[in-house]
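FW: tagging you since you asked about this chain on Friday. Here's the raw sequence from the shared folder, copied in full. Didn't touch anything.
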Amino acid sequence: MDGLIANSLGLILGGGFVIGFLIGITGVGAGSLTTPLLISGVGVPPAIAVGTDLLFAAITKMSAAWRHQRLGNVDWPILASLAAGSLPGAAAVLLWLYLAEPNTELVAWYVKKGLALTLIVSAAAIIVFPVLKRWQPQGFDDPVTETAARPFPTIVFGLILGAAVALTSVGAGAIGVAALTGLYPYMMARRVVGTDIVHAVPLTFVAGLGHAGMGHIDVALLGTLLCGSIPGILIGSRLTGKLPDWTLRIGLAAVLCFAAFILLRG
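HL: got it, structure written out here
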């Protein structure tokens, strides 16, 4: 592994910075972009790539979570419902991986193809819903109405999300954004991003610790990724509060489509 890191040091640092920047702005990129980078670009074994990426996502997003909270970009009731499903979902999959020792690469392949389709649909929804909003009756876009929590479906989506993240490392950002967009289509884009980033911290941390316990982690690779990503995410999260909502939606949709393209290629 040390030889792989040395030979691809520039790619890892540069990729970490770009991914961190995208996470800061859109909340997406840690799993859907980093895992393919490590496997296809660097040559890291899939199990090590997944485990390392999960802890990378937890630490990287932690550095942006405080800023999104300070900017008021986090909806805590919705986040609590999402975490109530995602954390048990991740724990259940980790227990299954430990006890059953299945062919995780085959299962992950099918899961990633399904996730890619979800990302494409979500990207379209992010762009279309604000347009449809203009034709809603007056008063429909009341801030209380558009962010009112829907606990049961949010918990169900969280359960699916937690299982996918623990299995593939993909989804904490991309599918989290997709779930929030589908359930709360009129929520401001910056609140979708902020809520998703803060929720991803405990989810990826729990999943990452589970994989670390199975030996699926490379500390040197993790440290190298973080050296590139943390400056990127600090810059990206600072821009989130200054960009217009429509700009964030276009950027978010573009990153989701790119993540879907990478998943379909893998």
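FW: Residues 2-265 form one domain.
HL: agreed, and The CA atoms of residues 87 and 203 lie 6 Å apart.
FW: great, closing this out.
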